[in-house]
Amino acid sequence: VQLVESGGGSVQVGGSLRLSCVASGYRISTACIGWGRQAPEKEREGVAVLNTINNAVYPDSVKGRFTISRDNAKNSLYLELNSLQPEDTAIYYCAIVCLGNWRFKYWGQGTQVTVS
User: Fold this and answer.
1) Rounded distance between C-alpha atoms, residue 27 and residue 30, angstroms
2) What is the mean pLDDT of residues 86-103?
3) Backbone angles phi, psi at 28, to 5 degrees
């Protein structure tokens, strides 16, 4: 299984980004998927989960600003980030196959998002 993220970058406060993740070796249409992030000197935290019937869950820190989605035909998942704040600066990782409590079986390598 391989997950490859793209779309990270530097953005001003209040800006937006769209992260993409292409999966290979696993059909995401049958998987619970998600995104996590890790800021410097902090533990990785989950920021979005989308189950197999497309119910999404977000922590309060990003609720209303981030949106997770999937395109099964492209075997890809996405994370729309809006109203970005400096505290959103982190490496963002896509993930598939939920293990509960924001844990996943497979993770991507990450893409950097910097907000200033």
Assistant:
1) 6
2) 96
3) -70, -15
| pLDDT tens track for 4-58 | 999 999 999 999 999 999 999 999 998 999 999 999 999 999 999 999 999 999 9
pLDDT-derived band of residue 105, with 50, 70 and 90 as boundaries?
A: very high
Contact of 49 with 57, CB cutoff 8 Å: yes
Report the candidate in 107, 91, 97 with the shortest Cα–Cα distance to residue 21.
107
Strand partners, 84: none
3-state secondary structure 20-70: EEEEECCCHHHCCEEEEEECCCCCCEEEEEECCCCCEECCCCCCCCEEEEE
Looking only at the bridges linking them, the beta strands covering 17-24 and 9-11 are unpaired
Residue 86: which of 15, 6, 31, 4 has the closest Cα? 15
Hey, is 81 helix, strand or coil? Answer: strand
* Rounded-to-integer distance, Cα 112 and Cα 6, Å: 9
